[in-house]
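User: quick one
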Amino acid sequence: MTATSEILPWHRQHWQRSIERLRAGRLPHALLVTGPVGIGKSVLADQLARAVLCRAPLDDGRACGQCQACSLYQAGSHPDAMWVGPEDGSKVLKVEQIRAVSSRMSTTSQLGGHRVAVLIPAERMNAAAANGLLKTLEEPGADILLLLVSAQPGLLPATVRSRCQRMALTVPSADEAEAWLRQRSPQADVGLLLALADGAPLAAAALEGSAGLEWRRTVVEDWLSLLDGDAEPAAIAQRWHGQDLAATLGWLMRLLVDLIRLKCAGQPPRLANPDQREHLQRQAGRVHLAELYGHLQRLQEAVRLTRTQVSAQAILEQVLIPWRLGASGR
Amino acid sequence: MKFKVQRENLLKPLQLVSGVVERRQTLPVLSNLLLSAEADKISLTGTDLEVELVAELKTSVDEAGEITIPARKLLDICRTLPEGAQLEIVVTGDKAQLKSGRSRFSLSTLPASEFPSVDEIHGMRQFEIGQGELRRLIERTHFCMAQQDVRYYLNGLMFEIEGQSLRSVATDGHRLAMSDLVTSADVGENQQVIVPRKGIQELARLLVDDDERVQIHLGNNHIRLQLPGLRFTSKLIDGRFPDYQRVLPKGGNKLLTAECAQLKQALIRTSILSNEKYRGVRLQLDNGRLRILAHNPEQEEAEEELEVEYQGDELEIGFNVTYLLDAINAIVGDKVTISLSDANSSCLIQEPAEGSSKYVVMPMRL
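Assistant: Done. Structure below.
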């Protein structure tokens, strides 16, 4: 966390509104910050939390980064601020963590200002945790701000959603995103990065020169050779095992969706993998659309299974083997 | 920063202040103490984000400064140094050097700016009362505080200022305790504050039974007590305490007066065979006689009979014996009066001569 980062250009409108409401004392007690992965939801939540706590905010509402509240926040020891995420090795926000939030929110503020808690990713609250939060959401004290950050707000119980005001962040326009990314990394293939990140600028920036990008290359190559019948699904699953499963499935999903696009539109204007257009075109000619939708269904099921205890190897094999069957069937 | 201090002078305040620092702390700076030196004194601050303790002691300071150092380690070092040892603490760069005789220690530090200390408190009003008086207010009521109740406003002790009286009230929804104190100074406008459980426990540990005055500062968000050489600050619970006046039973027409010690012993003995979970005992009242009965799921039974002052109709009523015992234990004097009205109404326990404390216990259906 840097001292006072600039407000991201595509957040400016939301930021303006929030600051106006804060100054007017009309900030709601709970905000549900939603939007796709990689557009800076947590950045905005962080900036908002700092701004609310800062003693001497700048003219545009950002935290000063100098005052006692700001230096405590940066050290992670601000007594009225909490960041709550899944603890080491856990996939969920546990009820104990939520109880700690509720109990902190039920006592008065230590530094005499707002009390802020950021729950991220909020949809990871298990049922008990979400229910535990209801009491605080329903009867908040004065000057409380709960920031629930979630890319999948649909997974939150309706009881929680209905007690928060929604702040729906969206993917910026292609021009805005490209301009921002180009300024950040002038050397990069901005178009490809944004395409791979579904237009989410922060995700694109994180991809640049990362191991993730390297990994995608492996996934694409393995997948193409699987479709060509040159590789065994079990061997690929073995090789992919131990890598970030969600990311791997994400790349597969993009490839598959591109195939469907090519199948339906012939020459679609945009692909999620623009650099693979030729390979994809070739493969699209060899499969039936119905088959692709079968793959899609299995892949969606696999994504759901990543949130459970099913082993990564099993999930991967379940996804990969049908491709092989399809390939050998011809 | 550089100063010298006698081990014995440092040890006591260090023990007190380290007491509030939580042992298992995820944030390193919170397991540290804030150490600041100026002119001719040093101060030590410990916090768990709810309760803060600051101890001050006079000593010769060569160079002023502020830093945080690990509480536990500093305490362990001080404790294990030989008696009468002289300590010198020098902070250079990000290390704190401790020297004493032939011992040398180098402790890691964190900057003071990362330490969340409470400097000023807002909306202040202050008054003074005797340390022993405050201690008694707490002792007589604190056991009725709720523990981790979802009704978070019950997880603490409520202090109410009304004219010249200071009152403490605690309840967990099954029983209630209140105690009054008439202060010499008019403390002004009525006000209620709820001090969290943790703060009350800490206070009970700190206050001693003497006539020394303590300064109490009440802010919008904090309560602060100035004790000799020690400053205690706690957050408050942000909620409204229930209207306890409505809970006090009125019109209890059946008055029972008993010897405290006798009643207590009888209850303790009966409780042995009461249900371990529900702790229910049955009281049967007759003219001048009280019978206490208990039985448990194993069909074991206890029965006690004692002579009491009671005139009136027969009455049978059940109570949680722990609640009764807690209240009777807090009664001062030889006798206790219990007013009852019927088997479904709560009872009021107090000292016979309109004492300063009152206890309300809800009955149980047995």
